[in-house]
Amino acid sequence: MKIYGLTGSIGMGKSAVAAMFRREGVPVFDADAQVHRLQGPAGKLLPAIEARFPGTTGPEGVDRAKLGAAVFGQPQARKALEAIVHPAVREERRAFLRRHRSRDFVILDIPLLFETGGQKRLAGVIVVTAPAWKQRKRVLARPGMTATKFRQIVNLQTPDAEKRRRADYIIHTGTTFAATRAQVRRLVACLGAKTGR
Length: 197
Hints:
The protein is α/β, with parallel strands linked by helices.
């Protein structure tokens, strides 16, 4: 089984592309979705998060606004949170790979792939990209997002141009939904051919 990474900066359309891969029958591991589950109601990370960041959890799980305020712009606090979250996500990923070990290839949807050096263990990296103006428009349309917060998030991420330079495959989402889906279908066929599917 070959393992490919899917990544892209905030607002580039990565979640939509991941959904397209799933519709084509490709197993996709969504690291963000796992984090939400692990931090949701009765999530197994709640005790450790509450112990390190008191007052940031409740019956509904992690209060994302409170936890975000506790770690945003605080490198040490962010590292402490990552030390809680990352090992649990790695275990979920291992379980996913065991479940799909008979497949020719799978995709790991990892937002901070290059930032964490995760690309080294993959057969290839798929980068989702869009023009900067479209990225900004999409992100600023999100509830609670501001231009300042957007800049801060972008500054924490590897620049889009660098991601594209290091990519093995690129999916452009600055076009129509149908054109993006056609790119995904072509790539699925290409990856399937590489594994002899």
